[in-house]
Design goal:
alpha+beta, 4-stranded antiparallel β-sheet, two-stranded parallel ribbon, about 40% helix, about 10% strand, elongated
Length: about 400
Amino acid sequence: MAFLQFIKLEARRLGFQLVGVTTPDPPIHYEVFERWLEAGWHGEMDYLASQRSRLRRANPRNILPECQAILMLGIPYPSWVEAEQQVNQDALNIIPGRVATYAWGADYHNILAERLQELAASIETHLGKPIPHHWYCDTGAILERDLGQRAGLGWVGKNTCLIHPHLGSYFFLAEILLGLDLDPDPPFAPDYCGTCTRCIEACPTACIAPDHTLNASHCISYLTIELKGAIPIELRPKIGNWIFGCDICQQVCPWNQRHPKSFEDSFFTPLINTTHPNLIQELCLSPKEFSQKFKNSAVTRAKRRGYLRNVAVALGNIATADPDKAQLIEKILTQTMFREEEPLVRGHIVWALSRINSDSAQQAIKQLAESETNAYVQTEIQMALNARHYQE
């Protein structure tokens, strides 16, 4: 058996349905990344603009000098439609939030890390000697979608996801840089997005540009996960009830609806109440309860303060869209606002209450103003008491 064939068979045994090889040459779209940084579209993700990050993304050999080939890997997880079909609809809560499908199960970083280590070990065992290598699973300073296209795994769509003609875009990417000379696969040349603009039109924050780039600082995934401070007021109403990530640009993509997918249970079996979290209950999570609930979940990336910030915004949006639920939402917001110790959460609860058109909600905000000592929360209070600052 040819050595490269062995590697690909071993990768598929470990669940990587997509396997390709490319060279460690500089990515052809690196200049696009530089222009993206210059435009400030990376938001507060300053680590992306560091000199170390730029050097590594510009040339994979700056990560592993001995690198001669890069093994690009893809492993599917369920699309929103497929996952929805497997959820017990009777178990949906009264006021559910939405979580990106990839975070419904165990944290993919942990699962992929084990498999990448096993694959690297199998390669060394097969050769009978150690091989210089370095692996990443969405964790390294590398333009993996660019390299994935060059390895033949698919094309970069207008929503910036790597899209495979049979698997769509619902798959995790990973890579192993190897100090081995392997024949590269041909790049994926066609761009099958064509004239379709469904993802651009569907994005609530209009963050997707027509040139296959997006303004991450306006993306719901960035706002609910990567952004650590206050969510810009003008973007809060556009988040809807998403509380961790967003699937919209993938949901509307025709390539995610053309073929049935196969995926592993480890990427679907939901952790407790992570599919459609009850926002009423989520807002009351103590630090200990949050840590216990999301111990093995990617949701921990948002941390409790960010997660509950998102929950508060979602509740405010739902109260605006569904007046029948406004009274229940107002009750839990008011109760939580006076006992929540995290200023970031309190401030967003104030905003959520301001979305409810009731005298009691306004009175609760005024009552908090009398005792609030945090400058940021006081700012939210003053804006909440002046309705013109909250016009969409």
